[in-house]
Design goal:
Structural class: mainly alpha
Order of helices and strands: HHHHHHH
Oligomer: single chain
Helix content: 55-70%
Strand content: under 5%
Distance between the termini: 13 Å
Radius of gyration: 23 Å
Number of strands: 0
Pfam families: Tetraspanin (PF00335)
Subcellular location: Membrane
Number of domains: 2
Keywords: Membrane, Transmembrane, Transmembrane helix
Number of helices: 7
Family: Belongs to the tetraspanin (TM4SF) family.
Membrane topology: Multi-pass membrane protein
Largest sheet: none
């Protein structure tokens, strides 16, 4: 029963993480395709699934119901298969994902500063400030993607580290100075993911342990 309670808590936590990520990065949908937000959606689904599994485990153990206990065991096997498939897919498609994100970012740069591209402009400004980056791979991407507005000496304001409130379609005061954000956003994304991957691995190990305990206690 205690292990089932832990799984219920785990399910709620996973759902909360997925919903939080979706809410925090909702505006990024203006730049990235919806497929890039499948991970937080997947977390919500998995969290709900784990909660249901824990419910069947609790009810099956309490009522000593064979059907519910059997259902519980089948669901445990299914979630293990899903975790295994997700891990393999993530490893195999890691390079393709980087290319897809890069193409989406490059495409959106063409609309930056346009009359009907306020959302894209705002999101790019937020990305470059939050991730301390400029362009996709470096600042020269702006000139290649949007030559009508930018070049090596005329970049979005957020490509340079500025005082609070200096955000928008205004040139960097001095793109050649130390204030220029030299790291590309695609690399900043990668560094962010790597920095948090360790915690994800620990959480995955904890979840696997809980599932193993549930599998043992169900027999």
């Amino acid at each position: 029963m205690k292990a089932n309670a832990n799984n219920q808590i785990t399910g709620v936590i996973i759902m909360a993480v997925g919903l939080t990520v979706q809410g925090a990065y909702h505006n990024f949908r203006d730049i990235l395709d919806a497929k890039f937000f499948s991970i937080p959606t997947f977390l919500v689904v998995i969290g709900s699934f784990i909660f249901v599994i824990a419910f069947f485990g609790c009810c099956g153990a309490y009522k000593e119901n064979y059907c519910m206990t059997l259902t519980f065991s089948v669901l445990l096997i299914l979630i293990f298969i899903l975790e295994l498939a997700a891990g393999i897919s993530g490893y195999v498609l890691r390079n393709d994902t980087r290319e897809l994100v890069s193409n989406a970012l490059n495409s959106s740069m063409k609309s930056y500063g346009g009359e009907n591209a306020g959302d894209i402009t705002l999101v790019w400004d937020e990305i470059q400030v939050d991730f301390d980056c400029c362009g996709v791979y470096n600042s020269s991407d702006w000139g290649r993607a949007n030559a009508a507005k930018f070049n090596e000496t005329f970049l979005p304001m957020t490509c340079c580290r500025q005082q609070t409130g200096a955000v928008g379609y205004v040139a960097c005061p001095d793109p050649t100075s130390a204030t220029l954000r030299k790291t590309g956003c695609i690399d900043s994304f990668g560094d962010f993911i790597k920095a948090h991957a360790f915690f994800g691995i620990l959480f995955a190990c904890y979840l696997a342990k809980q599932i193993k305990l549930q599998g043992v206690s169900s027999y």
